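yo

u said u wanted the structure for the complex thing, so here. seqs first:
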Amino acid sequence: MTERAGTRRASTARKSTGRDGTATDDTVQDTVRAAEADGAGTDGARADQVVFSGVHKWYGDAPAVHDFNLAVGEGEFVTLLGPSGSGKTTSLRILAGLESATAGEVFLAGRAVTDEVPERRNIGLVFQNYALFPHMTVAQNIAFPLQMRRMRKAEAERRIDRVLTMTRLTEFRDRYPRQLSGGQQQRVALARAFVFDPSVLLMDEPLGALDRNLRDHMRLELKSLQRRIGATVLYVTHDQDEALALSDRVGVMHQGVLQQTAPPDVLYEEPVNSFVAKFLGQSICLPATRLEQGEHTVVEVEGMAGRILVDRRNDCASGPGGEFMIRPERVRIGAERPDAAARNAVSCSVVAQVYLGPQIEVHLRTPEGAELQLMVPSEARARFTTGTSHWLSWTARDCRFLDGVN
Amino acid sequence: MTARTTITRAPSSGGVPPDAVARRPRKLRPGFVTMALGLPVVFMAIVYVYPVGAMLLKSVTEPKAGFGNFTRAATDGAVWEALWITARLSFEVAVLTVLLGFPVAYFLARTSPRRARFLALLVVIPFWTSILVRSFSWIVLLGDGGLVSKVLEPFTGDSKGLLYSESAVVIAMTHILLPFPILIIKGTLDQIDASLPRAARSLGAGPIRAFTRVYLPLAVPAIVSSGMLVFVIGLGFYVTPALVGGPKQSTIAVVIAQSVQVNFDWGMAATLATLLLVLASALTLIVRRLTKVKGLVSL
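structre next:
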C-alpha cells in the first residue's frame, strides 16, 4: 500500500515538472477555445460559475488532486473524465464542501467559498446512489432543500409542482423512494438537486447505478433537462461515451492531474498526451524520438523503418522523447506502397484476425517488430488472412507526437 | 421422487429436452429435512411449549377450575402495586439504556470498522458474566460505605449507599441491559447510507438539522425496538430487583417467586406469570403496529 502510494507520488511529481511548459500552453489554448465557444453562442461572454484555482488535496502524504485549475462558465456542461482513483470525485467534493482542499481556492458565482460550510454553498449535488431520504416521500424529498431555506409554503409548493412536471414525476409525488424504479429515483435526485436554483449542479456518476439501456435513455433526458433549465453542470464519470455525448467540455483526469480540458471533438482529435489519446477511443501509440523540428517534426518510431513526418501543430511533446500516436481509422491500408511523397508509409504483415461482426480487428506487425491493431470492414476479411502483407499510410496531419503519460 | 423423475425422462416427456429434466436439482431426502427441523421442534416443545402450556393451564385449574385466580389477583392491591413498580422500573431502564446506548452506538457506527469491532467486543464482554455476579457486584459498589457512596460523600455529606432503593435497581438493570440497545441501534446505524447526511448538508441543512431531520428519523425504528426489548426483558427481571432492591421494589417476578416459595400458591404464581406474558406480548404488538403505521422500517 505504502509502496504504491510512493510510486504514484513520484510519477506525479516527475510529470508535473516535465510538463510545465506544455501545461501553460494547454491553458492558453483552452482559454482561447472557451472564448471562441462563447463568441459562437448567442449570449456573448459568460461569467464563470465555478472556478478551481490551484487546488491540491493530500490524504496523509498521498496526493489525490494536484494543482487543479478549471473554470466552468454559466450554463456550461463540463465533465471530469478519468479512471477510478484519478481525483475527479475528490475535486467535486472539494467544490461541494464535503472535503477540504489542502491548498488552493474554490469560487462559486464569483464568491470564494473555500472555507464555507457545505450548506451555505448553494450547490445541487446528485450522488451516484441518489442518496434519497428513505423516510420521506418524493414530494418531501424535493421539499427538503426549500424547507432548509425557510421558503414560504405556497412558493415551495409551486416550485415542487414545477420540477415534478419537468421530471415527469407528478404521479409519484406521494411514493416513497423504495417504491420507485432506478430511473425514477434518479429523476427525484435530480429534481431535488435543482429545485432551489443552485448556482451549479454537481453530479457524481449519476447514471452509474442504472443498467445500460436506461442509462442511454437517461443521458438524453439529462441533457435536454439541463438545456431547458440552463443549469451549469459539473459532471463526473469514468464512461467516455457519456462524457462525449453530454458535455460542452471534457476534462480528462489521471493520477490527480487534470491532463487536458477541451470540447469532445478537440479532445479526440487533438489529445495533448498519450494518456488522453488512449483513454478516449482507440489509438495506436508507439514510443518515438524527435529527430528534427522544422516545418514538420521528424520522428523515429520504435519498430518502424524510416522517418515519420508529423505536422508541426501536432507536436505536443515537451522533450525529444515521447510517443507517436494515430487513430486507427486515419490509417489507410493498401496492397502497394503509396506514391504520394507526403504520406508516411510502413509495410507490415497480418499476425491475427478477430471477427467482430460488422468489423474485423486486424493485428499487424512491422518487420522491425512494432505491433498495432486496425479495424477493417468485415467484407474485406478475405484480404487480411494471417501472413498477408500490406502497406499502411497516413498523412502528417493525422498523426501526433505526444508526451508519454501512463 | 428421484426415481420418478428418471422414469419420466422417457420419450413420452414430449418437448422438454432430456437435459433440462436431468439437470433439475435433486430434492433433499425427506428424512434429512425431518431430522434437521424435528430435533429443534422437539427441543422447543419440551423446554418452551410444554412449560408455557402447563403454566397457562395451572392458572385456571389450580387449586380449582375457573378464573378464581384472576379475580383474586385483580382484587389484590399488592399485585397492582407490583405490576406498577415493574412497569415503572422497566420503563425507566428502557429510557436510560436508549439514552446512554445511542451515543455509543453512533460512535461505533462512525468509527473505523476495526476499532468498532474491538469496542463492540468490550460492550459484549459483560454478557459473558452471569447476571447474578453483576448484581452482586452492584451490592458491593452501592452498599453503605461502598465505592459509589464514598465518591459521592463530599456532595451528599454521609456515606449512606443507594442499596435497596429504586435508584439501585435502575442503575444495576441499566448496566445489565445496556448492550442490547447499543448493539441493536448500531446494527441499524450501520445500514444508514453515509451519503444521506452529506446530501442533507449539500441541500442546505446544518449539521444539527441534517442529524435531526435525516439521520435520527432513520434510527427511530431501532431506538423504539431496542427500548421495547429492554422494557419487555425488564418486566421479567427477578435476580437484580431481589438483590439490590428493597421490599418496596418488589417486581412482579419477585411476587411470583414469593407465591411459590413462601405461600406455595402455584395457581397464583401461574396466574401472575400469565398476566406478565399477556402484558409483554400486547406491548410488543402495539409498538410494532405503531412504528409500522408511520411507514418506518419494520422491527
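The domain at 283-402 of chain A is CATH 2.40.50.100 (OB fold (Dihydrolipoamide Acetyltransferase, E2P)). Chain A has ten helices and 20 strands.
cya
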